[in-house]
Design goal:
Blueprint: H1 6-19, H2 48-62, H3 64-77, H4 88-94, H5 108-127, H6 139-142, H7 153-163, H8 171-184, E1 196-199, E2 214-220, E3 224-229, E4 232-237, E5 241-243, H9 248-265, H10 271-280, H11 290-303
Antiparallel strand pairs: 1-2, 1-5, 2-3, 3-4
Helix pairs in contact: 3-5, 7-8, 9-11
Length: about 300
């Protein structure tokens, strides 16, 4: 076997030695020997006024959702939308809000969520111990509190702050605290499938516009009932239901009426027809009058619904 060329070894050795900088190079000729001077810049401490201004501005940022909710309530209550829109709902849907929420978009539902959150925030601000200024920073954090009575909301929030080790609690932490309080004050669910109930929409933005309407219980849960109304299915907490105590035959009669209204309502309808059906959805008696029966039959005939004898 032939030996590797010695010239190859020498060549490699020469290249390796060239990589190291000669000892006789000056600092200017060899950048590796250059000295870098770092000038320390002293950052001035905040003055007492600047600290106060910072806290004030931070709180304004944190209260942005609260201010938005208060502004929406004033727009609604004073009807300041009336020059361009017929209803507040239409105004919220059409208005191109610059601060639109990435989570929900900005629509009627989000507007009411913000307004309800502003009411809860105001309640917490007045009743909670504010020595450490731990208050909500967004609507999502306090949404679970809407399930509790206003008198219990501060207690729940303070428990959530404690669970978060003195910091602003997350939605999950607040939700867990609310769940524990609800279980502690749990009322047995005595509703039955097929029972006719009245919707109590107070303090529940999901049911806004449904207050006073009747609904048929379709499922019984631990803390709520699934109910069927003329325009769809809803899950409603026990505190938002009130039984009409109708007889079984009356409940069955209302179930048939609900089915008839739903079939008509599923079509593309004019606003006057929708209003008529919605008025039938707020009856506080287990039957239709002769005129109501005739009107519903006409609508069933017009929109292809099944006409029952």
């Amino acid at each position: 076997m032939t030996k590797p060329s010695s010239k190859r070894k020498k060549l490699t050795s020469a290249l390796s030695s060239d990589d190291a900088p000669p000892d006789n190079l000056t600092q200017e000729e060899n950048p590796a020997l250059a000295t870098i001077n770092i000038i320390a810049v002293e950052v001035p401490e905040l003055t007492e006024q600047e600290i106060s201004d910072r806290l004030d501005l931070e709180r304004k940022v944190e209260r942005a959702f609260f201010e938005a909710g208060k502004a929406l309530m004033e727009l609604r209550d004073r009807k300041l939308y009336r020059s361009t829109h017929k209803t507040f709902e239409e105004y919220c849907r059409v208005r191109p809000w610059r601060w639109r929420s990435h989570r929900f978009g900005h629509n009627r539902r989000q507007s009411y969520l913000l307004m309800d959150a502003a009411v809860i925030f105001d309640n917490l601000e007045q009743k909670c111990d504010r020595s450490d200024h731990i208050l909500p920073t967004n609507e999502w954090q306090i949404r679970p509190l809407s399930k509790l009575d206003p008198d219990i909301q501060p207690e729940a929030w303070e428990q959530a702050v404690e669970s978060a080790n003195g910091k602003v609690p997350s939605h999950r932490i607040v939700k867990d605290v609310v769940q524990r309080i609800m279980e502690r004050t749990r009322i047995p669910n005595t509703y039955q499938i097929g029972e006719v109930c009245q919707i109590l929409a107070k303090d529940n933005p999901e049911l806004r516009g449904k207050g006073g309407c009747w609904a048929i219980v379709s499922a019984v849960n631990d803390f709520s009932c699934s109910v069927k109304m003329w325009d769809g299915e809803y899950t409603v907490g026990l505190q938002h239901l009130k039984s009409y105590n109708y007889l079984p035959a009356e409940c069955e009669q209302m179930r048939l009426v609900c089915d008839r209204i739903s079939r008509v309502y599923s079509n593309s309808l004019e606003e006057t027809v929708k209003s008529l059906l919605q008025s039938l959805g707020k009856l506080n008696r287990p039957y239709l009058t002769a005129v109501e029966e005739k009107l519903l039959s006409v609508l069933e005939s017009e929109y292809g619904g099944e006409i029952l004898p």
